[in-house]
Amino acid sequence: MANDLQSRVDSMFNKDRLWAWAFVVVLWATLLFVYFAVSGYIQDGSARILLAVAGLLVGIFNTASIAAMISHYGHDKKFIYELDIKHLDANR
What we know:
Blueprint: H1 2-39, H2 45-75, H3 77-91
Helix pairs in contact: 1-2, 1-3
C-alpha cells in the first residue's frame, strides 16, 4: 500500500512538473510572438530595446519562479500530494 501511495505521489508530481514547464514554454512563445508582432509598429529604437528588455525580465522572473515552485514541490511532495490523494480517495 505504501509503495502504491508513493507511486501515485510521484505520478502526480511528474504531471505537475510537466504542466509547469509546458506553461514556461508557452509563456516564452507568447512573449516572443508579442514582441515580433508589436515591434514593427514601434518607430523609436530605444523603445524597441526597452520592450525587449522588459519582455526578457518578465520571462526570466517567471521562469525562475516556476523553477522555485517545482523545487519546493519536490522537497515537500510527500506532504502535498499525500494529502491530495487522501482527499481524492475520501471523495470517491
